[in-house]
Each structure stands twice: as structure tokens, then as C-alpha cells.
Amino acid sequence: MPAPNTNGFLPNPFDARDVWADEILAGNVPIPSSYRTEGLKFEPQGSYPFCVSFATTKAIEYALNNKIALSQPWLFFNSGGTENGSWFRSNLDTALRGNQEYSKLPMPEYLGDRSEFYSLKEAAKLPPDESKRILGYVRVSPTREALQRAIMASGMVITGVAASGGYWADKAKRPPKDDDHAVLLVGWDEDGSWWVFDSLQPSQNFDGYHRLAPDYEFRSCYAITELPADWKEQVAEVRKAPPGNAERYGKPRDYAAEVAFAAKMLAEFKKFNNQSVLEAAGRFWEMYVRAGVYGGYSLSYTKWMKWHPGDLINDCYMWRRTGQHIFDFNKSRSEYK
Fold first, then answer.
1. Cis bond leading into 49, ω under 30°?
2. Deepest of 41, 82, 173, 182, by most Cβ within 10 A of its Cβ?
3. Which domains, from first to last, does the chain contain?
């Protein structure tokens, strides 16, 4: 059994049903040269693996105008959290049903060990308070502009970081490691460095705010926002638009082939071994299925006995890093040769 994750961040299971901010939130939000959401109250998670729940409850409290303090242990355990932590989507899905006040299930007074971990789990069997539920959430593309617009619209973005190495240095750079901790991305400085709000405590007088490098790579990003009543229709319409509006490239539908290709595609994206790219693939899942089954786009290829990512994985990797596609999927692959 792996050692418990001290910080408590777990990567999301893949789900192509994620709704992305650019699919439903229209309009140009002015982006100032610097910005920071102020007034957040620091609360330490101690040694408990509650970082995702700490970030989520803080974002919910802000969305509710800081009128109520919410229980991080309640959200954690009702989201299926274990000693290894929890993941963003489970916390947010639980918050759609409701929350509980901090006074009903507070953090233990002593945060230096996990002696009260299981007693908190038992106490968390309180029903959700529907008056404290959120009305929706979206994924945010981890490009700089998309993150800035989401912060301006929602006050903060819930995201993962690699909290190791020189993490606590001012304007810390990202080490070559996966995310293991959750924070709130709350702003940026004129020099481009990012402001985050943390639940770990590096020093006695820490206020929760610290900076990461301008080129820090964020991977899984979510924002709390109320979804419009017709959000499903909006998402469906956006996903028909370029670069993926070709309806099977003029070929008759083969449903069995689509199901088989989708299963293979998931396996191939997992071989690529990049969690953020796998999660981003859900944004274009139907488009990629059509492109692979009917358009001739590849998933991978083998050269000199070695596996290599193909058209669709490379396209998703490019989009996740830059917000741009390699291919115009209204064209078949043969048109690029």
C-alpha cells in the first residue's frame, strides 16, 4: 500500500463530461496588469490530507460572500476522501448537493498528527445543508489568459501544484514532478508572477498568500460559477463549431467503431502518461472520436520498437499548453499529406 499523501491532492479520474469555462461563459473580461483577491483568511490544514477540501470550501465561502464558515472535514469525507487525499471533481460534485457549517464539524485543535482522522469520518455523517450548495462549476483551460479571466470572473481558481523542492521560495519555479497539493490561484503581479493562497503553513505568521513563477505550469483548474439554465445546449453548440464541426467527414455512422475507438483512445492517452493532457482530452472527446474513426487521424505509432504519440495526442498536448490546435478537424488527415 502506498504511503499516505501528506498534502492530500489526488488527480481526477477521467471524465469527458467536464464543462469548460470557454464553452458557457461569454464576454471579454478586462485583464489588468496586476490583480489579487484580498481578504482571504488563512486556515491551516496541519498534517491532514484535506488540501483539496480546504481550497474548495474557501472558494465556496467566497462565492457565498463569506457569510458562513464551512467544514473542510465534512466536505472531505463526504467526497470519498481517504488518507491519500481527495480530488477536485468529487469535492465540487458534493458541494452541488450542499455543505455543512464549520461549527458542526470543526478541525481538531491539534493539527500535528492524524489521531482524530477516523473520528472525524464518523462525525461527518451529517446530512448536507442544501442552503449552502454551489450552483455550478467549470473547468478552466490552464493557459495564462484563460486563468486570468476566470480569476476576474470568480475571484479564484482551484488548482494543483507540486509542493516540493523550493516550493516556498518567492516566485518558485515548478519542479519536474506531478501535482501533490491543492491551492487557490488568486492573482498575478505586473512581472507576471502568480499569487496563490495556501493551506499549508511554512512559518508561524504565514497569511496564506505567496507567489509562484510567471511560467509556473498549472494543470487541473476549476472555478465555481453559476451555470446558465441552457448550459447543456450551449456546450453542445460549441462542440459542433470549428475545429470539429465535420459530421463524420461525409461517412455513415459506425457506432460500434466509435465505442471501440473511444476505449482505445483512453488507453493510448494513459500511455502518454500526462494526467493534465488526459483530463484535457475530455474537452474534445467526441471530436477526437470522429477524427479517428472517420477522418484518418492517428492515436500513436511505433518506430524503432518504441511507442510514440500520434496526431490526436499531440494535438491535445498542444492545446493544453497553448490553447491552439495543430489540426483543423474539419479536414480529413489525408488533406494534410
1. no
2. 182
3. 21-224 (3.90.70.10), 239-336 (no CATH)
